[in-house]
């Protein structure tokens, strides 16, 4: 502020730079250098308890993804409710919360060109029982059981990826 109580040129430049940095930080959660994208991947409790984490990570790396961050955690009910808030009015929500709190999960930030679509293609259809028929080489066919216990999660858009990555890591 200047001596008259207003903002001077220097103050405005600092404010613009801070706003630009803040905007860049939020929007860059799902995008990276060289045109790469980032997406959130979760190996759910059935995948962790079924000892599929090593297999899933091997598939991820062999498919050209870089694992930028990872965290193994046992989610509490409040975290699951907030993370899956968009599903809170659906009939399956209580069972989703129970399932996601039933054991530890492995949460990863994956990066590569076209990461979101490529990860979703790799994991296959949401219903693992259908994936076993229509996408037998998918991760859900390998380790999922059904529509609910489907072993893995993947962001479905750049906006979702940014929100989900920031939920766990930033």
Automatic annotation (TrEMBL):
<keyword id="KW-1133">Transmembrane helix</keyword>
<dbReference type="Pfam" id="PF00334">
    <property type="entry name" value="NDK"/>
</dbReference>
<feature type="binding site">
    <location>
        <position position="126"/>
    </location>
    <ligand>
        <name>ATP</name>
    </ligand>
</feature>
<dbReference type="GO" id="GO:0005524">
    <property type="term" value="F:ATP binding"/>
</dbReference>
<feature type="active site" description="Pros-phosphohistidine intermediate">
    <location>
        <position position="153"/>
    </location>
</feature>
<keyword id="KW-0546">Nucleotide metabolism</keyword>
<keyword id="KW-0963">Cytoplasm</keyword>
<keyword id="KW-0472">Membrane</keyword>
<keyword id="KW-0808">Transferase</keyword>
<keyword id="KW-0479">Metal-binding</keyword>
<dbReference type="InterPro" id="IPR023005">
    <property type="entry name" value="Nucleoside_diP_kinase_AS"/>
</dbReference>
<keyword id="KW-0460">Magnesium</keyword>
<dbReference type="GO" id="GO:0006241">
    <property type="term" value="P:CTP biosynthetic process"/>
</dbReference>
<keyword id="KW-0067">ATP-binding</keyword>
<dbReference type="InterPro" id="IPR034907">
    <property type="entry name" value="NDK-like_dom"/>
</dbReference>
<keyword id="KW-0547">Nucleotide-binding</keyword>
<dbReference type="InterPro" id="IPR001564">
    <property type="entry name" value="Nucleoside_diP_kinase"/>
</dbReference>
<feature type="binding site">
    <location>
        <position position="140"/>
    </location>
    <ligand>
        <name>ATP</name>
    </ligand>
</feature>
<feature type="transmembrane region" description="Helical">
    <location>
        <begin position="12"/>
        <end position="30"/>
    </location>
</feature>
<protein>
    <recommendedName>
        <fullName>Nucleoside diphosphate kinase</fullName>
        <ecNumber>2.7.4.6</ecNumber>
    </recommendedName>
</protein>
<dbReference type="GO" id="GO:0046872">
    <property type="term" value="F:metal ion binding"/>
</dbReference>
<keyword id="KW-0812">Transmembrane</keyword>
<comment type="similarity">
    <text>Belongs to the NDK family.</text>
</comment>
<feature type="binding site">
    <location>
        <position position="150"/>
    </location>
    <ligand>
        <name>ATP</name>
    </ligand>
</feature>
<dbReference type="GO" id="GO:0006228">
    <property type="term" value="P:UTP biosynthetic process"/>
</dbReference>
<keyword id="KW-0418">Kinase</keyword>
<comment type="function">
    <text>Major role in the synthesis of nucleoside triphosphates other than ATP. The ATP gamma phosphate is transferred to the NDP beta phosphate via a ping-pong mechanism, using a phosphorylated active-site intermediate.</text>
</comment>
<dbReference type="GO" id="GO:0006183">
    <property type="term" value="P:GTP biosynthetic process"/>
</dbReference>
<dbReference type="InterPro" id="IPR036850">
    <property type="entry name" value="NDK-like_dom_sf"/>
</dbReference>
<dbReference type="GO" id="GO:0004550">
    <property type="term" value="F:nucleoside diphosphate kinase activity"/>
</dbReference>
<feature type="binding site">
    <location>
        <position position="120"/>
    </location>
    <ligand>
        <name>ATP</name>
    </ligand>
</feature>
<feature type="binding site">
    <location>
        <position position="44"/>
    </location>
    <ligand>
        <name>ATP</name>
    </ligand>
</feature>
<feature type="binding site">
    <location>
        <position position="92"/>
    </location>
    <ligand>
        <name>ATP</name>
    </ligand>
</feature>
<feature type="domain" description="Nucleoside diphosphate kinase-like">
    <location>
        <begin position="36"/>
        <end position="169"/>
    </location>
</feature>
